[in-house]
Amino acid sequence: MVKRGVPSRSLLPLAEYLGVSKDAVAAYLGLDRATAHRKITRGDTLPIYVAESMLRLLELSRLEEDTSTTPDTAAAWLRTAHPMLATDAPFDWAKSAYGTVHVKEILTAIKYSNSV
Question: What is the pTM of this model?
Answer without folding.
Answer: 0.81
